[in-house]
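Note to self: user wants both folds in one dump. Writing first protein now.
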Amino acid sequence: MHSLLQSYGSALRRPRSLGRSLSSYLNHTTRLEIVHEDVKIGSDGESDQVSATSSDEVHSPVRVRLRNNSVRKISTEDINKRLSLPADIRLPDGYLEKFCLNSPLFDKPLSRRLRRVSLSEIGFGKLETYVKLDKLGEGTYATVYKGRSKLTDNLVALKEIRLEHEEGAPCTAIREVSLLKDLKHANIVTLHDIIHTQKSLTLVFEYLDKDLKQYLEDCGNSIHMHNVKLFLFQLLRGLNYCHRRKVLHRDLKPQNLLINDRGELKLADFGLARAKSIPTKTYSNEVVTLWYRPPDILLGSTDYSTQIDMWGVGCIFYEMSTGRPLFPGSTVEEELHFIFKLLGTPNETSWPGITSNEEFISYNYPRYRADCLRNHTPRLDNEGVELLSKLLQFEGKKRISAEEAMRHPYFHSLGDRVLTLPDTTSIFSLQDIQLEKEPGGRNYPRTNTKSHQQG
């Protein structure tokens, strides 16, 4: 924890270092402390991950050369190309005057160290670069604000994590930072910037209008079934990307799925996420909000993998289709009771080994017979019910994977091209993919959200 915070914040604790000009940096032999870890500028003008390389040198595809040995003034376009900045970025006053074509920024391959200095001088990693607009929500460790970037005028979400003097940053913040800086996908919320001060760690995210819970409320708890299909596919697409990288989200629920006015759904709040390391198989079973927690975890299992997220997908699928939560238990015992009442009380045939589980034995549940899911999901077609059934399996190893689910016949109406899109390309880039208007909903998007990225 100490080393991570040091890497993002040590330069900020040295205002003299950050206050010097780029030229001063380059003329000093003192090693520059890291402000950002492996960052560049993304398409919206905020920070993003650099391309993978084992070298400290990151070669820019753009080279600016002197023509006929004439002296030419550096332009904003030159800086934008060299640092991969978008055209609408606003550089600080006087920033261009310090450069010439044979300055260190242009006369050799661009190193990560020089890139970090340049980004810091432009304004990344600094609180004053962002303006707080509205308070969106407050959690145990963090307060979330709607904000605006002075560099691009784009809206952002500022997740301000309070740092206790003795305890430092909560482990959930460390996990979120370490995972999100490596997860770049159209269906995963983008981490733009990280700002570390003595009192707080602020994560700067892209701003989305609302979460799935709010979307449901705005639609009168009746989402258009075509939109249910689009949201579910995007959820699976983002999860599949995580699972391919051995990352488990472990806290899927409607509040952690953000939606913008285009209909793009993105996974958020990776505070409980975990990179599944090998060979360890032991994890905490105190994960996943109760209503979306699978029965094997409820009964104490700590040996799990990506299947832990798939049960939650099933619960969210049901909730989008019906407008109500599937298993709204208030305790572990009640949660399991709801599950068994619908899916049947497990036995050695349906769940081998269950009769040896001490917690299961202690609850002494009635012997319920499985009910038909179709009776509870009248708006789902046959293929939708079948997919839901494959998600709601007692044993993790029997649940369908995210990749398999994306290829399920339920999604055939979306066409084959949605399966071959680049990771960072939205499904709405396809001409045939559009969000349907919600007939019973309020005007969308709603600008005054109640919560966003709550910590």
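First done. Writing the second protein, which came from a different request thread.
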Amino acid sequence: MWALVLLLWTGALLRHGSCQDIASSPEEGLAPDSTGAPVEEEDPFFKVPVNKLAAAVSNFGYDLYRVKSSANPTANVLLSPLSVATALSALSLGAEQRTESIIHRALYYDLISNPDIHGTYKELLDAVTAPQKNLKSASRIVFERKLRIKSSFVAPLEKSYGTRPRILTGNPRMDLQEINNWVQTQMKGKIARSTREIPSEISILLLSVAYFKGQWVTKFDSRKTSLEDFHLDEERTVKVPMMSDPKTILRYGLDSDLSCKIAQLPLTGSMSIIFFLPLKATQNLTMIEESLTSEFIHDIDRELKTVQAVLTIPKLKLSYEGEVTKSLQEMKLQLLFDSPDFSKITGKPIKLTQVEHRVGFEWNEDGAETTSSPGLQPTRLTFLLDYHLNQPFIFVLRDTDTGALLFIGKILDPRGT
């Protein structure tokens, strides 16, 4: 159970609810089924096929984040789970039933009834990578040298995912150069070239890349940016550039069960970032991480209250290049690395050997407007609200239109990964 305390001018508790339940009480949102037993009505937002698919792959993303975070408890985590999900979903086009079902369960496809998963995925990709979103995301399947690939796999792959597979030449230097050139083309040069060598034993390599530079709806005044303390814990601090706004308009709530203050800031292109800030710098982030689901984030998006606050937030420019192979193996996908059936791709036995992830993420003072939109009327508070991201926090970058999780980060030290 979770309790999201929304600060009205009365300072009252607005509601209690379950992070898994859309209804705010056992009676709300329920209707009897044919047997007379109450069943929960689906939120209209999730009845839209592309939104429902976005929720499914986002839940995969939260699972991936939890595994990655638990493996790196003292390090920053930066992921674009959608790009990894896209690579896996594309690979499932070449899988026979048992292997396909394993991938689909990990992506939560087994919980949605959609006869055209891949067609809907194309809609999702088109929606979240529209030019106004400022998101660049791509995935690619790379196969071992001399592999003969069936055209019946290539055609739907290109149709739904806009990508063609690549076959390695066997020359590590040439293969790395070709992959780097592809990444540079897809990301418009926003991600640095890799220096990681390609292992010689590759059978299937999945590449997932993404880059995002946020533009706030309301820009920060760069003259108010200054070096301030970021508390790594109760004893250690570091100086980082902190942006500030003494009269920012944001959406806010206090989750008493998770002991964290939640804030949402709008970005251009119908996107937003939700911040989870623990009440204490030394607080374990695990409880917050365990609560993250598409439904929980959707509930938060509906319930946060518009307020005026004194805001400070670190300038951020982070990148990550590495593997998520072990994380996926821990997510009940081990069969893909052992004995999968990809006979829709080729007649030769092949298996997944490596999953590479390269991402870049940044925000600075840039914004579309110098003042807040007049349409946003903050709730009048009886006290001044402060929201200072000057200690470890979690952020979620979400597409408002579809609900898709695009980026997620655990920032223990904003100076870098």
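Dump finished. Worth passing along: The CA atoms of residues 150 and 345 lie 5 Å apart.
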